[in-house]
Write a structure and sequence with these properties.
two-stranded antiparallel sheet; 150 residues; 2 strands; Arc Repressor Mutant, subunit A; elongated; mainly alpha; 44% helix
Length: 150
């Protein structure tokens, strides 16, 4: 179950929102800058998150994004499944490219059990937990394009 850069950026952007006051609408450019994230890629991710009702998109004079629910009510698992797809629990932890439903690797049964345990832990981890975690010191995100609006 290898996660994509899209999931990394999505979680980092949501952690920025989780640190803001409840229902605070934040322009995407601010989220990108605060998280050190590329604006154009984050824009695509946040559209997907809005479709899954994790964030709400606001248009007009006060445009931007806000969390759809309190951060303590949004699990990391919910976010990852919105970004990566609902089959996240079925993906192999050992051989993500060579293992498929038609041709399972020898470790797939054990991998699936470990994956379910990992997802159970991610169900308990919320955006409130991520919002309380400071940005890693070695992170080298890019804020290219952050000068644009939401």
């Amino acid at each position: 179950m290898r996660l994509s850069r899209e999931s990394d950026y999505g979680l980092r952007g949501l952690a920025v929102l989780a640190r803001r006051p409840a229902e605070h609408v934040t322009m995407l450019a601010e989220i990108a800058e605060a998280g050190g994230l590329p604006y154009s890629f984050l824009s695509k991710i946040f559209r997907k998150l809005a479709q899954h009702r994790i964030v709400t998109a606001h248009r007009g004079a006060h445009r931007g994004y806000a969390l759809a629910r309190p951060p303590a009510e949004i699990s990391v698992r919910e976010v990852l499944e919105a970004i990566e797809g609902p089959d996240l629990a079925d993906r192999c932890l050992v051989w993500d490219r060579d293992c498929s439903p038609r041709r399972r690797c020898l470790l797939h049964v054990q991998s699936a059990a470990a994956g379910r345990a990992l997802l159970a832990g991610l169900e308990r981890l919320t955006l409130a937990d991520l919002g309380a975690t400071p940005r890693p010191s070695g992170y080298r995100g890019s804020a290219r394009g952050a000068a644009r609006g939401a």
